């Protein structure tokens, strides 16, 4: 990525060699990259495949501004529309693949109305896309953990079904009992030996308080390097001293961040995170759902939004945004076997761009997408049936 032109050999789904004038048999299929830029497969570190309305009739959004308004509205819509999380998540995963995304972490709603239906739908999509795409399924209590009795048991069941990660949500603002909410959550994670990915929308001192409780339990349960904070708005909404102290502790415990770089919310400070050694990945969050009409399954576009939100202008700065949806995204989510290195899985994206920064800003149609050594898309069009 951004290195001099070279040849790349793929054998049995893996990058077997890189260099100039590689010696290969005459029967080897050759693809001329035409001097274009080669990127590793893109990484979506935070989305909600189960929620998307992509490909359906336009949803007229008349929802209130509060988080609880959106939660309640979504539950009502699901019941009325008989939303099919399996078919919709598959549709969106295929769109992601066409644009070069080969690794996805997706949250799946779990509550007492739908039970584990959305988890089951995403597990089916994970299996369907497994030859080309790695999908992590997060069992996510969107309506809260304590507010709806029986949710903890449903999360237990979701992890037993095969969900990869345990999700959490605003222990103060939604569950109203942060200590108990987090105690239950961490006990479930420890019981199943699963990592955690916790939505933390809470602002300012409230969010900082919840984050401290999360860090306390991360240490107490020995879950270092297994906890991710999604959003973490509070880190941009407290004093520099508070932020620095929290980031220092996050770095010590290996707690990472994921941001969608929303334009309407205060975001964690990227520079301070980098100086502290806290990794920050990028994700779209929801795409075309009852929460928001915005978004596209294009991680180069999300990288551009990250660059714009953080005022990244120099080429080396814009490349930081690209890292959020490539190498750093893979590291934060724990996706192994990643990158443009001999021996790694051959997940490659060819784009008509001169530099990585150019690719982020121009977001060109992907000329070629190779996933697990197979050509899966050309000129933005998926080749799979």
From TrEMBL:
Instruction: List the CDD domains hit by this protein, alphabetically.
Output: Bact_CD
| Family matches, as InterPro entries | Amidohydro_3, Metal-dep_hydrolase_composite, Metal_Hydrolase, Metallo-hydrolase_Enzymes
**UniProt domain Amidohydrolase: residue ranges:** 31-377
Coiled-coil annotation reads none
An example Gene Ontology molecular-function term: hydrolase activity, acting on carbon-nitrogen (but not peptide) bonds, in cyclic amidines
Q: Which domain of life is it from?
A: Bacteria
Annotated signal sequence is: none
- PANTHER family to which the protein is assigned, alphabetical: BLL3847 PROTEIN, CYTOSINE DEAMINASE
Which protein are we looking at? Cytosine deaminase
């Amino acid at each position: 990525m951004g290195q001099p032109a070279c040849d790349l050999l793929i054998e049995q789904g893996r990058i077997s060699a890189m260099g100039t004038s590689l010696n290969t048999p005459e029967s080897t299929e050759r693809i001329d990259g035409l001097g274009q830029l080669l990127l590793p497969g893109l990484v979506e570190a935070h989305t909600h495949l189960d929620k998307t309305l992509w490909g359906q009739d336009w949803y007229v959004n008349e929802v209130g501004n509060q988080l609880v308004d959106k939660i309640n509205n979504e539950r009502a819509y699901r019941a009325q529309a008989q939303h099919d999380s399996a078919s919709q998540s598959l549709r969106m995963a295929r769109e992601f693949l066409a644009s070069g995304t080969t690794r996805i972490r997706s949250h799946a709603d779990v509550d007492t109305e739908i039970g584990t239906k959305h988890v089951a739908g995403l597990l089916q999509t994970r299996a369907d896309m497994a030859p080309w795409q790695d999908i992590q399924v997060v069992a996510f209590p969107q309506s809260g953990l304590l507010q709806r009795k029986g949710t903890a048991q449903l999360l237990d069941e979701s992890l037993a079904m095969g969900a990869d990660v345990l999700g959490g949500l605003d222990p103060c603002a939604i569950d109203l009992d942060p200590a108990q909410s987090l105690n239950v959550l961490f006990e479930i994670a420890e019981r199943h030996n699963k990592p955690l990915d916790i939505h933390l929308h809470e602002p300012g001192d409230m969010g900082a308080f919840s984050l401290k409780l999360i860090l306390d339990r991360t240490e107490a349960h020995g879950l270092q390097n297994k906890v991710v904070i999604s959003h973490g708005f509070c880190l941009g909404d407290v004093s520099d001293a508070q932020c620095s102290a929290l980031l220092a502790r996050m770095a010590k415990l290996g707690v990472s961040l994921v941001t969608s770089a929303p334009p309407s919310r205060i975001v964690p400070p990227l520079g301070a995170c980098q100086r502290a050694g806290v990794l920050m990945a990028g994700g779209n969050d929801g795409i075309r759902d009852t929460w928001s009409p915005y978004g596209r399954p294009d991680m180069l576009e999300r990288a551009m939004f990250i660059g714009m939100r953080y005022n990244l202008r120099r080429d080396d700065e814009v490349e930081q945004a690209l890292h959020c949806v490539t190498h750093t995204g893979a590291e934060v989510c724990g996706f192994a076997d990643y990158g443009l290195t001999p021996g790694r899985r051959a997940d490659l994206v060819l784009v008509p761009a001169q530099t990585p920064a150019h690719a982020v800003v121009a977001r060109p149609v992907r000329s070629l997408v190779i996933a697990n050594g197979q050509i899966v898309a050309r000129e933005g069009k998926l080749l799979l049936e």
